[in-house]
Specification:
Mean pLDDT: 96
Strand content: 5-15%
Shape: elongated
Strand order of the largest sheet: 11-10-9-12-13-14-15
Number of strands: 15
Largest sheet: 7 strands, mixed
Radius of gyration: 24 Å
Bound molecules: uridine-5'-diphosphate-glucuronic acid
Structural class: alpha/beta
Low-confidence stretches: none
Distance between the termini: 65 Å
Number of helices: 18
Helix content: 40-55%
Length: 433
């Protein structure tokens, strides 16, 4: 099949590479000329494990172009994977989606399906179909199908190759059959629904996961007060198959480009329809407090960070990504900078991106050791493998080994054996100095 993909962000590029890997010919379109040039040269512009290798293996079926007209004209299916950024009121901004639809209508001259991967408010696909029907001047059938994406950054290739489900929201057999054909060689469970249900599955899934995280974080905060241990509590809860152990990791809250945006968007949509979804609102509120929980804890040890050497381990919103969108590190570092801290930060891939927000205010370290040396306090914002595997003795190189761990990277019994302060989330603090 001939496939085009609009947008070469995380979702678009991964979709394109995986579909090329199943044997389809895929043309990726982006307005960013520089990005397209790099992709043409085989440079996999985003940091995503295994994507570069898979892209290299499938280059003969992949084309990268800024020429939307040519790409869309010949395609049987056009995937739309452009951004739907959040507007000031929390609703989704659809201008990029509309732009692509206009380009598609100008280019196509045969029947085709537009598969919308971008996360859009429930009802948008139907509205877009009306827009298409009104503006399609040609004697061809152009139909929209909703095909939400469930991959996570950092494990995107694995998630798409082994997807728990492919959801296809279609209103006719024409669109449904073409979409099923796109995925038929991947041997994955396919659920077909109407378009609105497919859109809702995406929001309801992301928001449920965000809710689960906020719930466990609130339980963690209570564990700290009551002397329970959140790691044990989460394990015990997760053993119940009705609850499940995933997304019960307490910490300093969720970030990224999806949960923060999708929770606010669903809340906005529910309010718009005068049917407020209160659980999601609560998850958002809990998360914004949770993000700065470590700083609040750190005030137990220092009234002010002015002039202190502050070590920061991890900047990305989660490991295995260079993405900083809504990363708790941004909130925390803004406070530390404001307070006059001398921040020495380490992150294996996100430091370059962080320099765009804080070019001169931080010292960016090549090694964890450099960040820790002589530091007055250390904050862990991301559970990178290198942090988890760090020998706790390395913290003893700090002037005052006070370690504030926002991701519960270490075992309490191990940390007890060292002369340090170790304060994590939902567990007893160790004060051994
Ligand atoms: C999320 C969903 O997991 C994907 O299924 C979805 O396709 C994607 O959004 C999207 O809508 O495009 P992603 O944002 O890449 O994926 O990252 P997650 O792995 O879900 O993590 C999100 C945040 O939750 C991270 O900040 C992570 O640290 C935090 N988290 C996750 C926790 O605090 N605790 C957990 O137990 C799990």
């Amino acid at each position: 099949m001939k496939i085009a993909v609009a947008g070469t962000g995380y979702v678009g590029l991964v979709t394109a590479v995986i579909l090329a890997n199943t044997g389809h010919h895929v043309t990726c379109v982006d307005i960013d000329e520089n990005k397209i040039k790099r992709l043409q040269a085989g440079d996999c512009v985003i940091y995503e494990p295994d994507l570069g290798e898979l892209m290299a293996d499938n280059m003969e079926r992949l084309t990268f172009s800024t020429d939307a007209y040519l790409a869309y004209q010949a395609a049987d299916v056009i995937f739309v994977a452009v951004g739907t950024p959040e507007k000031a009121d929390g609703s989704a901004n659809l201008k990029f989606v509309y732009n692509v639809i206009d380009e598609i209508l100008a280019a196509v001259d045969k029947d085709c399906v537009i598969a919308l991967k971008s996360t859009v408010p429930v009802g948008t696909n139907d509205k877009l179909q009306l827009y298409i029907d009104k503006n399609n001047q040609k004697d061809i059938h152009v139909e929209l199908a909703s095909n939400p994406e469930f991959l996570s950054q950092g494990t995107a290739v694995h998630d798409m190759l082994h997807a728990s489900r492919i959801v296809i929201g279609a209103e006719s057999d024409f669109a449904k059959n073409i979409m099923v054909k796109v995925y038929e060689t991947m041997d994955l469970p396919i659920l077909t629904t109407n378009r609105s249900s497919a859109e809702m599955i995406k929001y309801a899934s992301n928001d449920f996961l965000a809710l689960k995280i906020s719930y466990i974080n609130e339980i963690a905060n209570l564990c700290e007060i009551l002397g329970a241990d959140i790691e044990d509590v989460a394990q015990g809860m997760g053993m119940d198959p009705r609850i499940g152990g995933k997304f019960l990791k307490a910490g300093i809250g969720y970030g990224g480009s999806c949960f923060p945006k999708d929770t606010k968007a669903l809340h906005w949509l529910s309010n718009y329809h005068d049917n407020e979804i209160k659980t999601v609102k609560a998850a958002v509120e809990v998360n914004s407090n949770q993000k700065i929980k470590l700083i609040k804890k750190a005030r137990k040890y220092y009234d002010s960070f002015d002039g202190l050497k502050v070590a920061v381990l991890g900047l990305a919103f989660k490991p295995e990504t260079d993405d900083l969108r809504e990363a708790p590190s941004l909130d925390n570092i803004s406070i530390l900078v404001e307070d006059g801290a001398n921040i020495y930060a380490w992150d294996p891939v996100a430091a370059e991106n962080f320099k765009r927000f804080f070019p001169d205010e931080l010292t960016y370290c090549q090694t964890i050791e450099e960040a820790l040396e002589n530091a007055d306090i250390c904050f862990i914002f991301t559970e990178w493998k290198q942090v988890i595997e760090l020998d706790p003795k390395k913290f003893l190189a700090m002037k005052k080994p006070i370690v504030l761990d926002g991701r519960n990277c270490y075992d309490l019994n191990t940390m007890k054996q060292h002369e340090l302060v170790y304060d994590s989330i939902g567990r007893k603090s160790i004060v051994n100095l």
